[in-house]
């Protein structure tokens, strides 16, 4: 961007804005890397990732489904399997069973996304779109 004599290299656009907002959400879930459904659609089977939740970020009309990109280790794969089962129970609305399952994940793995969902369950909040209110 700039003129013929003064310029600065930068990136701009919708994808950059979305990436910035998604990166800012990592602390909400206690994870290192969040990716969107658009990135997941391009991944191969070599990657390990798990669904977090749909989020409506500032500046977007539609919610974007977030995923955590996880290390490709045996522990991550075991955690993902149990977490996916727990999340499905939560999505179906069985909060009592989901609470038990997420509690087990917290005890066994100290899993931060499970802690996040336990908090939602304690507030009796069902699965749904999380509206992001901060940048």
Quick summary:
The chain is an alpha+beta fold and 135 residues long.
Description:
The chain has 135 residues and is of the alpha+beta class. The chain has one domain. It contains 6 helices and 4 strands; from the N terminus they run ααβαββαααβ. It has a 4-stranded mixed beta sheet. The protein starts with 13 loop residues before the first helix and ends with a strand.
Q: Give helix and strand order, one letter per element, not per position.
A: HHEHEEHHHE
> What is the percent of helical residues?
40-55%
Straight-line distance between termini: 24 Å
Task: Order the strands across the largest sheet as they lie in space.
Answer: 1-3-2-4
Beta-sheet strand percentage? 15-25%
- How would you describe the shape? globular
Q: Helix count?
A: 6
Structural class: alpha+beta
How would you state the average pLDDT, rounded?
Answer: 89
Sketch the major β-sheet.
Answer: 4 strands, mixed
Total strand segments: 4
What's the structural domain tally? 1
Outline the fold blueprint.
Blueprint: H1 14-24, H2 26-29, E1 34-36, H3 37-40, E2 48-56, E3 64-70, H4 74-92, H5 95-109, H6 112-122, E4 130-131
Parallel strand pairs: 2-4
Antiparallel strand pairs: 1-3, 2-3
């Amino acid at each position: 961007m700039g003129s013929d004599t003064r310029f600065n290299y930068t990136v701009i656009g919708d994808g950059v804005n979305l990436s910035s907002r998604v990166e800012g959400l990592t602390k909400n879930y206690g994870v290192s890397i969040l990716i969107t459904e658009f990135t997941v659609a391009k991944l191969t089977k070599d990657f390990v990732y798990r669904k977090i939740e749909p989020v409506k970020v500032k500046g977007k009309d539609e919610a974007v489904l977030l995923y955590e990109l996880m290390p490709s280790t045996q522990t991550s794969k075991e955690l993902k399997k149990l977490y996916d089962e727990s999340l499905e129970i939560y999505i179906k609305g069985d909060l009592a069973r989901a609470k038990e399952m997420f509690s087990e994940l917290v005890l066994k793995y100290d899993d931060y996304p499970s802690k996040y969902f336990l908090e939602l369950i304690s507030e009796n909040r069902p699965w749904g779109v999380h509206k992001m209110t901060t940048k």
